[in-house]
């Protein structure tokens, strides 16, 4: 009997030693000013799949969103070939749909508990959100094409820099290198050779782009503080930022008096009911994925996904329809995939070591 007990103990020791030998790699990960040990495990793989799912949700919803946006803004209406010019009213409807959709989802099948986030964060975040959007849209009228491309691609840098300054975020040097690879790759990919040779960028346009990028960075830093201090959930953030943005836009509509003309235009051309409805619905779906990415993985990951959105849209069209890429676009493609691949494995890693 004693011999059997000794044998059992020996077997347990052997199993324990074997288990220690096959323990997974441990990494030291730096984020929010602190380095913590992390195990590369199935949990990390699950997290990677979730990021991919959110990214696909953003890409698909905003691809359809873009189609209806083009239809609304570029179509000619009636015999007079009128154009839709009521951008502030459209933004008002968009923010209202986003806010209502988030509240409906929040109170039905995706309850996220109480929100303890201070209101001032939402007030400031909404201002940055609208400011970045409106200055970016206005700047496109005053800058040349190459400047547009570079500015659109540099959003992750503004998020990183202002996140570091205001939200106490810390990134490794590798993270900056990989993000720069993505930015350069996207810029090379979406640039068109037949643009930008006849127009000049004005100082005012460049200033607006700088304000827009600063707004993006400040919004990212605000969202990081909300995540760190209050663990704000996605639907709470989406609903309240859009509700407060709705108030800001409403003040703008009262000042401009645009709303009655917008209502009359839509009633005159009723096809806009369905187009605006689908446009705003896709916006709401896309924002669910965007705010889920922001609250679970951070504003930087979200900015990288949204920056590469147009890139992946073109890649899909190449695969489905056989559209050709030139040498510059192929080089940009290699840089983007290299940056994304390296960042997914090493972007948050400060030191890699095997725990004995």
Q: What does this 3D model show about the protein?
A:
By secondary structure, this protein is mainly alpha-helical. It has a domain at 52-75 and 84-173 and 192-322. The chain is built from 14 helices and 3 strands. It is globular. The two termini are 35 Å apart. Its main location: endoplasmic reticulum. This is Solute carrier family 35 member B1-like. GO terms for molecular function: UDP-galactose transmembrane transporter activity; UDP-glucose transmembrane transporter activity. It is found in: Endoplasmic reticulum membrane.
User: Main beta sheet: strand number and arrangement?
Assistant: 3 strands, antiparallel
Q: Biggest sheet, strands in spatial order?
A: 2-1-3
Strand-residue proportion: under 5%
* Mean pLDDT, all residues: 81
* Structure class: mainly alpha
Shape estimate: globular
The CA-CA distance between the termini, in Å, is 35 Å
Number of E-state strands:
3
**Secondary-structure element pattern, one letter each:** HEEHHHHHHHHHHHHHE
Secondary structure tally, helices: 14
User: What's the gyration radius in Å?
Assistant: 24 Å
- Could you list the spans in which at least 5 consecutive residues all have pLDDT below 50? 1-6, 11-41, 350-356
- Tell me roughly what share of residues is in helical segments: over 70%
Subcellular location: Endoplasmic reticulum membrane
Transmembrane segments: 51-68, 88-110, 122-143, 173-191, 203-222, 234-256, 276-294, 301-322, 328-346
Family: Belongs to the nucleotide-sugar transporter family. SLC35B subfamily.
Pfam families: UAA
